[in-house]
Design a protein that fits this description.
This is DHA1 family inner membrane transport protein. With 407 residues, the chain is mainly α. The protein folds into two domains: 185 residues, Growth Hormone, Chain: A (Up-down Bundle), CATH 1.20.1250; 214 residues, MFS general substrate transporter like domains (Growth Hormone, Chain: A). The chain contains 16 helices and two strands. Strands 1-2 form a two-stranded antiparallel ribbon. β1 and β2 form a beta hairpin. α2 crosses α3, α12 packs antiparallel against α16 and α14 packs across α15. The chain starts with a helix and ends with a strand. The C terminus is likely disordered.
Length: 407
């Protein structure tokens, strides 16, 4: 495994902590700044919106720059944002720090996916992307519980200082471990932003982005209200929810690794199987949520199959974008966040309509089936003989001796 992937994963770990740990610290932050829960919630939703903006806008602004240098700059922005949050004297400054850190999120994972894919042989690209996203899953499994505990014991600011320190370590790792050639932009950079925008003429790219919104949004929409499902339907006490979420995080970790391995064999074949099984799991969860043991099993499987889609969805976008993958990769990170917001919104509407705490699971299943239909249509258009389960990608050499991804 190239050492540069470890540095990318460490950066992903820090970014994952920044995104998720705030949820466990909101009461302390709100009390410190004397704001209500609704205002404190903007520290989460505002972050998500900034991720989407940065994933496209910031990525578009740096298309001509060497990718390694861009990753280093993004990590500096990440460090600055968390340091601002750690010393924030008021709510407005805290929100500013959150937005600064969020701007680097989408661009880091978008550009990092391209760099990770070009660090390895073509047959291992999805696994390389999965390794980078392992940092994100590890943040859920280990970082968030311990980050919340640290904040509760030593004050919420200590958590953001710890994240800032992780950012410094990631910056050093990126500088030392990511090869200079891996940071060299491919031939698309010669055309700048216009060359990157040409990739969006591809119908396959738009189908891939749509599948990301629906597929990941289906899982995340169900997960958004999972605490209500576990306590209101499954009968678990509120104190058990954090431990159950660790089990969910273990599912994410396993699904990410296995999904990357199988996506290297067949992107569309893997996505079709995973999405079909995920939809079935969500339906079973909705039907069996009142049974505690069944609910725990379904929770773990939901995490595993939900995140097993991520390497395949990201690799499919890279292939669909041919020789200009950077902006498209960032757009897919934005699509993940749009899916998160859409799934959460639709799940909330279902609960508000009086359909109960199982309704977000049904909404998630419907969205997942929509993603399955989109991938099936995209695969059929790309290769009418897709039923054989085989899909090929073409590769074009670049100046650093490694092939870039083409559709």
């Amino acid at each position: 495994m190239p050492a540069g992937l470890i540095a990318l994963a460490l950066g992903g770990f820090g970014i994952g902590l920044t995104e998720f740990v705030i949820a466990g610290l909101l009461p302390e932050v709100a009390a410190d700044f004397h704001v209500d829960a609704a205002a404190a919630g903007w520290l989460i939703s505002g972050y998500a919106l900034a991720v989407a903006v940065g994933a496209i806008g910031l990525t578009a602004a740096v298309t001509r720059l060497p990718r390694k240098g861009v990753l280093l700059g993004l990590m500096v922005l990440f460090i600055a944002g968390n340091a601002v949050s750690a010393v924030a004297p008021d709510y407005a400054t805290m929100l500013t720090g959150r937005v600064l850190a969020a701007l680097c999120h989408g661009a880091f994972f978008g550009i990092g996916s391209v760099v990770a894919a070009n660090l390895v042989d073509p047959a291992r690209r999805a696994r390389a992307i999965a390794i980078m996203f392992t940092g994100l899953t590890a943040a859920n499994v280990l970082g968030v519980p311990f980050g919340t505990l640290l904040g509760q014991q030593l004050g919420w600011r200590s958590t953001f200082w710890a994240i800032t320190a992780i950012g410094v370590l990631a910056l050093i790792g990126l500088a030392l471990l990511v090869p200079r050639d891996a940071g060299r932009a491919d031939s698309a950079a010669d055309h700048g932003l216009r060359g990157e925008l040409r990739a969006f003429r591809s119908g396959q790219l738009w189908l891939s982005l749509t599948a990301t919104v629906l597929g990941f949004g289906g899982m995340f929409g169900a997960f958004t209200y999972i605490a209500y499902t576990l306590t209101g339907l499954s009968g678990f006490p509120a104190a058990a929810v954090p431990w159950l979420l660790i089990l969910f995080g273990l599912g994410l970790f396993a699904g990410n690794a296995v999904g990357g391995r199988f996506a290297d064999r067949s992107v569309d074949g893997t996505l079709l199987v995973v999405l079909a099984v995920l939809a079935a799991i969500l339906v079973a969860f909705a039907l069996l949520a009142a049974l505690p043991v069944a609910a725990v099993i379904a929770l773990v499987l939901m995490g595993a199959f939900g995140f097993a889609t991520v390497p395949g969805l990201q690799l499919r976008v890279l292939r669909s974008a041919e020789d200009a993958p950077t902006l498209a990769s960032g757009a897919n990170i934005a699509a993940f966040n749009v899916g998160n917001a859409l799934g959460a919104w639709l799940g909330g509407l279902a609960i508000a309509a009086g359909l109960g705490f199982a309704s977000p699971l049904w909404v998630g299943a419907a969205m997942t089936l929509g993603a399955f239909a989109v991938i099936a249509a995209a695969a059929a258009a790309l290769n009418p003989r897709f039923r054989s389960g085989r899909q090929r990608s073409t590769l074009a050499p670049v100046s650093n001796g490694r092939p870039t991804i083409r559709g």
